[in-house]
Amino acid sequence: MPELLAEGHVRGRATVMIVDDVQDELGRVWQTADVISADDRLPFELAVVEVVTNAVKHAKSPSGDDIELDLELEVRPDLLLARLFELGAQPVILPENAGSMPDPDSEAGRGLALARQLLTTITCERRDGANVWTLTRRPSEDG
Q1: What is the largest CA-CA distance in the chain?
Q2: First to last CA, the chain
Q3: What confidence tens digit (pLDDT) does each residue in 104-140 have?
Q4: Residue 114 burial (CB < 10 Å; 0-12/13-18/19+)?
């Protein structure tokens, strides 16, 4: 496996404040992994922020308790990877059209669709009582 250029981590309550923390951490990661081109950094960062924002807005706890988000980031020359754990959240049930761009007049529903367009892969699975989103982007070779 190619060398790890940088890694990052953010953990906190699923509130708007964590989105700022994620953006700050991504900025720190890019300073360390400056060989990754902006053409790959920016789409990956936008996708990560969209998925985190989606979790803040939509993740619910069965008990009404706060949801905690735990984001792990890894940057390698050939792979940008983010894992977002929605701790304490009820299972995600994605509608059949999830990830499809909504009608142009729609006021919501673009985050997941945008993330799918910007990433190589995006998955969500249930693991140990948490929803785990895995986002990857393969950097361009000419980057």
Answers
A1: 49
A2: 19
A3: 544 445 678 889 999 999 999 999 989 999 999 999 8
A4: middle
